[in-house]
Specification:
The chain is mostly helical. It has four helices and no strands.
Length: 115
């Protein structure tokens, strides 16, 4: 399993999205700006989908843990859009849970999967 194969441009774009997300989130928190909070929530969804898609695309032999990670991240991003559009705290919590599970599955796959 080699998650570093492929274009570095996509990886850099995702890093830029993540840094932008944290900057907007910090501003939304400090300024108590609901529009910025909504943009940050949408950014969370975009980042989750992008990371999940990149993970799936860049791994040659994903295996079940990496497939679960990619699937949870993409699903979490999509549910985040539902949470924002519907204003649903339950969907927001589910989105966070799915992203957390996706990150956990990724950590498991990278640290505990024997090559």
């Amino acid at each position: 399993m080699n998650a570093t194969d492929g274009s570095t441009t996509r990886s850099r774009a995702i890093v830029a999205l993540i840094l932008g997300y944290f900057a907007i989130l910090a501003y939304a928190t400090i300024a108590n700006d609901p529009l910025a909070a909504t943009v940050a929530a949408l950014g969370f969804g975009v980042i989750a989908i992008a990371v999940g898609a990149l993970l799936y695309d860049r791994v040659r032999d994903p295996g079940p843990a990496l497939l679960a990670a990619a699937g949870c991240l993409v699903a979490g991003g999509l549910v985040q859009f539902v949470a924002v559009l519907a204003g649903s705290p339950a969907a927001d919590g589910l989105s966070s849970l799915l992203v957390f599970l996706g990150v956990g599955a990724y950590v498991y796959a990278v640290w505990f999967r024997s090559e």
